[in-house]
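Usage

Read records sequentially. Each one opens with the input sequence:
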Amino acid sequence: MKYLIKDLSKLTGFDGARIRKWQERYRILRPERGANGYWYYGNEDYIVLQNMKRLLEKGEKLQSVVSLGREYLLGMMGAEDFAESEMSLIQRIASNDFSSIEREFDELYQSMPFSSFVRGPILRAVVLTGSAWEAGLLSVAEEHAFSRWLFTYIYSKTSELGIPAEPVWLVCVFPGDPHELGALMHYALLISKKVPAKYAGTLSIEHIVDELKRNSYRNLSLSMVMPQSPEKIESIRTRILEKSGVQKVLIGGRGYRASYSPDEDDTSLQYCEPPVINKRRKNALEEIKKQI
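and closes with the structure output:
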């Protein structure tokens, strides 16, 4: 994945001027200049900055951190930051041992309400996988493989609750964001509350509008992992509302919260939730159930 400097700034908490200064002075970042003249940073640059942040937060001096060099920062292992049970899951993900993970998840699935299962073990696994990748304990390929397996697992368990024939709530990923798990988890929670919903994944704005026009949807949820500018978010919300005729476009997820509160360290919730307070959300859901 490629990031503009403003994207890295939002994801790491370092302002763009500081990132650019480190790039020029210490040569620990290796962005590529695009045809449009902008610098594009890669996943490795993101990992370098995240590991620099970890060391700086522990009290290390900047000169000491940058003197470690790019390769060292890329290879930093963070095993000491994870509990034994977390390392066990990380090791099984790295070895593609999804069968034992499935058995463990199935036991948890049977022991609690579905919504608690999604908000608890599933959410923790999603957060852990991202943290393990940032710490260098999982490769991009290993993280992607587990994410695809987990996607299939969540969808399968959600389908056991029943797929509504006439959905009134469409769930998609925010246009241009490739991360689907947050949207799928939101969809799973809607189904668990018996809200007739449909999961459509990654679609362009045009295809989202077309789907909304073709069916009798009342609401659309968009899930974000990658932060965007508030102006872009509201532009897309307004565009969909004007072209589709849907009643509400609800945008949420980790990226949405980071876009409006970039300094907030929010890892407790990564699935898409409507950006309204709980009481209003509850009342809205109850109103939809009455109309069905």
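Summary fields computed downstream for this record:
- The radius of gyration is 20 Å.
- The domain at 5-74 is CATH 1.10.1660.10 (Multidrug-efflux Transporter Regulator; Chain: A; Domain 2).
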